[in-house]
Amino acid sequence: MEKIEHTTVATNGINMHVASIGSGPVILFLHGFPELWYSWRHQLLSLSSLGYRCVAPDLRGFGDTDAPTSAALYTVFHIVGDLVGLLDSLGVDRVFLVGHDWGAMIAWSFCQLRPDRVKALVNLSVAFQPWNPKVKPVDGLRALFGDDYYICRFQEPGEIEEEFAQVDTRKLMKIFLTSRNPKPPRVPKETGYRGRPDPPPLPSWLSEKDIDYFASKFNQKGFTGGLNYYRALNRNWELMAPWTGLQIKVPVKFIVGDLDVTYHIPGVKEYIHNGRFKKDVPFLQELVVMEGVAHFLNQEKPEEISMHIYDFIKKF
Is this model's pTM higher than 0.85 or not? Predict the structure, then answer.
């Protein structure tokens, strides 16, 4: 881990913290919520040893990267703009892109907006979501799961932050990272996160030191930056209207755990397996469903995920 370099890059009006290691073709890793560059620690070490330059930023709003307070500054255009600026500052034309959770959503948009900068994409957990002209995303989720659904609870600025502040950040990180329940996460206002029981002992793939690192960064930065991605969902829906129906035209490998909460959203399995996913992502070359694996698969199964990435990108 001490071989990983940490730098700050000025891009798109913010200062971005970037972890990197190795030399060779560049792999750009995009993390999710509530995470950091650190979520890719295993892949950085594995894939740099196989001849790649591995680059993992803290995305806008997270860790040691700047975190504007307004959700209006977290649209897909801001985030993709940050990443294009990062590539320019590194002097890199095209990259292998790897995303997980929110990072996967950003990666899909990156491939729609700037496919010229992507050699191939390996996305984890969140499948492509075609633009639906009839309903805004948060409205659709609210209709499906109710007001207690976590994404709906995240919408009101300051509200969930206040709730998080009443719970030890280490406990919060354990609740998020160790959850293996594929049912829709609901957080009733009456009990909130403070009403959650203490999580079970940490699994073998997550250490107290890992939890300490995540918690220390969220204690410093707060959660607002990360939550703003959810608060920009409906705005993204409006802004991306001109790209309706645009296919993902880069080579793709998609990996999901069969206990992943995103895989159990009504309609998602059918979308992935009945041909519609392949229609929207015509260069989908590999589709992997990992048995008994939950949402944070890059940390839960680090060696397997690193090999899945390597086996795909070495073709190009």
Answer: yes
